[in-house]
Design a protein that fits this description.
This protein is mostly beta strands. The protein has one helix and 14 strands; from the N terminus they run βββββββαβββββββ. It is about 5% helix and about 50% strand. InterPro entries: Lipid/polyisoprenoid-bd_YceI, TTHA0802/YceI-like_sf.
Length: about 190
């Protein structure tokens, strides 16, 4: 049960996943990827009676993104493929992790209830900040789950291409979160 208070967020309390899709004539050759952020932290300040008085902030270490799954494709995703994707993510055309070591989200408004909510906020990737809306639900099972759609090119990310552009990742990716509603670290007096 979600109650008023301040909650610490991170890999011990939840998961952040990125799901990619394929586009182009060669899309059958590639994989739809599930990538997990393994190093991230955040804070949620919850005011159940006044959702707009609540806030969420999250920071992700860009070099902590790990490929967890690759579905589709002509052949299974190998460990060598996973290592190559990790190197590609760090590249200047994608996340340029050497210059931009973090991705950050800061809420600007929250509406709804713990059972169905929207979080609007600002997402900063590669030094560029744009608005994003996350949609979420709490199903009474102790978890909050949700998602947001992010268009990579808006942040200066060129979606990965191969085979002279015949295979490419779709520009829109889906960011998913799942967070356990543990006890708050601070509760209002």
């Amino acid at each position: 049960m979600l109650t008023d208070g301040t909650y610490r967020l991170g890999p011990t309390t939840g998961r952040l996943l990125i799901r990619t899709g394929r586009a182009g004539l060669g899309r059958r050759a590639g994989h739809d990827l599930t990538i997990e952020a393994t190093q991230w932290s955040g804070e949620a300040v919850v005011n159940v009676g006044d959702p707009d008085g609540s806030s969420v902030s999250v920071t992700v270490e860009t070099d902590s993104l790990e490929v967890r799954e690759g579905s589709g494709g002509l052949k299974p995703l190998t460990d060598a493929d996973r290592a190559e994707i990790k190197r590609t993510l760090a590249d200047e055309a994608l996340l340029h992790t050497a210059v931009h070591p973090t991705i950050a989200f800061r809420s600007t408004g929250i509406t709804g209830t713990p059972q169905s909510f929207e979080i609007t906020g600002e997402l900063t990737i590669k030094g560029r900040t744009h608005p994003v809306t996350a949609h979420g639900k709490g199903n009474g099972d102790g978890l909050l789950r949700g998602w947001a759609t992010v268009t990579q090119s808006a942040w200066g990310i060129k979606p990965y291409t191969a085979f002279l552009g015949a295979l490419r990742l779709a520009d829109e990716i889906k960011v998913e979160f799942e967070v356990a509603t543990l006890d708050p670290v601070d509760t209002p007096e």
